[in-house]
């Protein structure tokens, strides 16, 4: 074919050429009447026969795919002199028409990945070159795109152009399939089922597992094992076959929660069957955090030693008192079976936190020593170990008085008990109430000694008389 000829643009239907000369680009239908030399002559109904080069009629092995008498469709590619026809261009024209129709209707087409290009893949769709962006070949990132070469998938044509630069995508089909899967998810799998799947991705937070075509679940890192897992890659790699238990199904979001931990014996349950709150246990420091330290008590069993439970002295950070691998004897303070948590404290803290038997009652007059002074009041240690608080308003001192200077730690004070909350282990004390109590006692003594009448006058007069008699 002459290089000067324009590219043929076949019409959509073969044309009758009785009485007229064909034009380049026309699509004709005829019959091979003679094969000779390197050409085949075709009677297509025109004034003269057209010809096709035999190279176009050979198959992949070089054998002729047509013979004399066979029907054939071809495109007119040259009308100078004899009419030259092309079966390949006719076929290409039909393919482009089919692909254009598929693009308009968004019908799926089949394509084969033939190469990896910058940013995507080269795809052959019915012999036509197409491009699929890397992000459109799958719903997740492909670590090794080259593994896709040679695979055949169905695609949607997203850009048609002139039919020579197609852009295709698998994502719309994948998303549509996933939506259909979500709608029947509860019918296909059930919570508690044990299934086999294949690991498709491993992330920092867990591993994705394909359970069946279009159904994928996640094993969160916390559900991999009862033992502590630093990273999911310690247990899984892409392509691994794995048995899992379904622990959660979210049909609205199309998510399935999986667990391999559920298939293991639970060491926590075994451990807590043999211990109780108050028991002393031995463990080693496994991890140190700002808020405390995790203590390994047994394989797969950790307890939390909060920073406040390390010592009776104030500690800014657990690392001030603990080292990795250090062996400790601790007391179990709390067991949360539903959350599988164990709270630990040191023996000294456990002793300090033991509940104190409060024997005092409201209106008792008691003595105690100043334990500490805070901005809101003074703490007094009473006989028997109970600690009471004298709020600033009950100290019977001037407003803004420096109680730390006036009542150093160890100072003994006599106070009245004004409130007792045994459930919360709190006792409220008052120095101010002591004066009132003394006054009440003075009146009582006066009545007793003087056999005073019911109407006694003002308290000042009574107190004055009482003090006079005392003198």
Model description:
The structure is a single chain. The protein is α+β, with helices and mostly antiparallel strands and 471 residues long. The protein has six domains: 1-104, Beta Barrel (OB fold (Dihydrolipoamide Acetyltransferase, E2P)); 106-175, Nucleic acid-binding proteins (OB fold (Dihydrolipoamide Acetyltransferase, E2P), Beta Barrel), CATH 2.40.50.140; 184-263, Nucleic acid-binding proteins (OB fold (Dihydrolipoamide Acetyltransferase, E2P), Beta Barrel), CATH 2.40.50; 281-352, Nucleic acid-binding proteins (OB fold (Dihydrolipoamide Acetyltransferase, E2P), Beta Barrel), CATH 2.40.50.140; 365-430, Nucleic acid-binding proteins (OB fold (Dihydrolipoamide Acetyltransferase, E2P), Beta Barrel); 436-470, no CATH class. Helix content is 18%, strand content 37%. The protein has eight helices and 25 strands. The protein has helices spanning 87-105, 171-183, 185-188, 267-272, 347-352, 403-406, 432-450, 459-470; strands spanning 27-36, 39-43, 50-53, 71-78, 83-86, 109-117, 120-125, 128-133, 152-159, 166-169, 194-203, 206-212, 215-220, 241-250, 255-259, 280-289, 292-298, 301-306, 327-336, 341-345, 365-374, 377-382, 387-391, 412-421, 426-430. The strands form five sheets. It has a five-stranded mixed β-barrel with strand order 1-2-3-5-4. It has a five-stranded mixed barrel with strand order 6-7-8-10-9. It is rod-shaped and about 155 Å long. Mean pLDDT is 85; it is low at 1-13.
């Amino acid at each position: 074919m002459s290089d000067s000829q324009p590219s043929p643009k076949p019409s959509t239907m073969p044309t009758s050429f009785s009485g007229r000369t064909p034009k380049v680009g026309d699509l004709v239908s005829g019959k091979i009447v003679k094969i000779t030399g390197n050409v085949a002559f075709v009677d297509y109904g025109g004034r003269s026969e057209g010809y096709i080069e035999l190279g176009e009629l050979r198959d992949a092995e070089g054998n002729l795919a047509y013979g004399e008498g066979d029907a054939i469709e071809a495109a007119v590619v040259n009308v100078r002199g004899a009419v030259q026809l092309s079966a390949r261009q006719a076929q290409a024209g039909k393919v482009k028409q089919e692909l254009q129709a598929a693009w308009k209707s968004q019908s799926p087409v089949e394509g084969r990945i033939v190469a990896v290009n910058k940013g995507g893949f080269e795809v052959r769709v019915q012999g036509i070159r197409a491009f699929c962006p890397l992000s459109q070949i799958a719903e997740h990132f492909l670590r090794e795109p080259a593994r896709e070469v040679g695979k055949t998938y169905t695609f949607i044509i997203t850009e048609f152009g002139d039919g020579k630069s197609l852009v295709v995508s698998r994502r719309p089909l994948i998303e549509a399939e996933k939506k259909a899967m979500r709608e029947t998810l509860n019918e296909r799998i059930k919570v508690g089922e044990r299934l086999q799947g294949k690991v498709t991705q491993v992330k920092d937070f867990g591993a994705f597992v394909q359970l069946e075509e279009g159904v994928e679940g996640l094993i969160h890192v916390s559900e991999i094992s009862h033992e502590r897992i630093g990273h999911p890659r310690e247990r899984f790699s892409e392509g691994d076959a794995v048995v899992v238990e379904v622990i959660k199904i979210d049909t609205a979001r199309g998510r399935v929660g999986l667990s391999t931990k559920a298939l293991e014996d639970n060491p926590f349950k075994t451990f807590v069957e043999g211990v109780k709150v108050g028991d002393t246990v031995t463990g080693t420091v496994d991890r140190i955090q700002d808020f405390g330290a995790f203590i390994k008590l047994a394989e797969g069993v950790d307890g939390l030693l909060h920073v406040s439970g390390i010592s009776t002295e104030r500690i800014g950070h657990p690392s001030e008192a603990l080292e990795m691998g250090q062996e400790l004897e601790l007391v179990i303070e709390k067991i949360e079976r539903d959350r599988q948590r164990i709270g630990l404290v040191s023996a000294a803290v456990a002793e300090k936190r033991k509940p104190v038997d409060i024997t005092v009652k409201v209106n008792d007059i008691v003595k105690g020593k100043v334990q500490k002074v805070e901005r809101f009041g003074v703490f007094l240690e009473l006989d028997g170990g109970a600690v009471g608080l004298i709020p600033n308003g009950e100290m019977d001192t001037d407003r803004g008085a420096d109680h730390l200077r006036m009542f150093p730690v160890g100072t003994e004070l006599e106070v009245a008990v004004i409130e007792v909350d045994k459930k919360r282990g709190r006792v409220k004390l008052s120095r101010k109430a002591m004066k009132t109590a003394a006054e009440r006692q003075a009146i009582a003594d006066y009545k007793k000694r003087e056999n005073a009448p019911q109407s006694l006058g003002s308290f000042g007069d009574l107190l004055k008389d009482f003090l006079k008699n005392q003198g």
